[in-house]
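User: Some background: our group keeps a shared notebook of sequences we're curious about, and every so often someone picks one and asks for a predicted structure to add to the entry. Today it's my turn. The entry only has the sequence so far, pasted here. Could you supply the structure so I can complete it?
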Amino acid sequence: MSDSIIAEGRLQSVNFSNDEIARYSRHLIMPEVTLEGQKRLKAASILCIGAGGLGSPIAYYLAAAGVGRMGIVDFDTVDFSNLQRQILHGTHDVGRKKLNSARDRIKAINPNVQVDLHDVVFNSENAMELVQDYDILIDGTDNFPTRYLSNDVCVLAKKPNIYGSIFRFDGQCTVFAPHLGGPCYRCMFPEPPPPGMVPSCAEGGVLGVLPGVIGVLQAIEAVKLIMGIGDSLIGRLLSFDALKMRFREFKVRRDPGCPICGDHPTVNQLIDYEQFCGIPQADAEAEKELDVPGITALELKKKFDRQEDFVLVDVREPFEYEICNIPNAKLIPLGELPARLSELDSADEIVLQCKSGARSAKAFRVLQEAGFRKLSNLQGGILAWAEQIDSSMAKY
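Assistant: Of course. Here's the predicted structure to add to the notebook entry:
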């Protein structure tokens, strides 16, 4: 176990009670683990960024395995939409801080684990200070600014970064650790994709059990690194397709020209990752896109009550329409709108509607360019309608 990342000196003060010996007995009888390996787990500290879909199985299994100290970074509260996959939280936790329900669940699994709660946004100002106190960082986030930040702070601090990502039915896992001879996240993705090109789980969905697979893989990699056993995923990207139930492996090589871990690094401190990923520019463009004549949910309700003559066009997808819809809305998905303009009359007053108002704002531009003039966009989309007009309507 000489390749473990845990310093030998830290093991000298590790002791186990008889209850702990019984708890970890199935580990202790494994020749690859033994009491020494369990001591390394108890001496280890892990920082998990996110207490959501990936963070849940990571925290569950590392706590059960006996990792001595676990830090969790999250600032969000539990929502009903989380419960399909974020198994750290239950129905009774809706509205609570995720950190609090995560702590309670971890302590219920293993009261011997020290749980550090960091109720902050993980950013360039606090990342280095947070990471320095832990042996390993595990990235359980779903946005590019945080992924690049997690990568850079780990490269600079010489800490392993266990990466996982999920989307719909697909997941990936690897370990970035240039100080151990492997590549970093920037070696694999030198530049972030244009904002909005890769949808988040909230936008594209995710199979509820998929984070369990990828999160468990991340936890396994952490255990192996701590104990210094097996072949880690350093330099290898493991890809999982749940629909085909197939794993594939890809080589990931260190890029000598990488700006942070290459032969001549140019990034030697943390930067503005929102700016790096183009988020401010994208937000400005989105605001411009949304700058169209709007109508509130209350104003739309009054139009219905007065039985005014207008057409409500829902530009969401059919499967969204099945979840909830405003009565008498005409469904024309945004992608089909240019080919279905003949179904609309430019003489009619048209109100456009989607989930939150963004897609319908794009539809506004499409119709405007086609010569339609009597247009308005439902502000806040059907979510606003559900909040302000019909509280019985399902929200997604």
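Suggested note for the entry: The mean pLDDT is 94. The CA atoms of residues 346 and 396 lie 32 Å apart.
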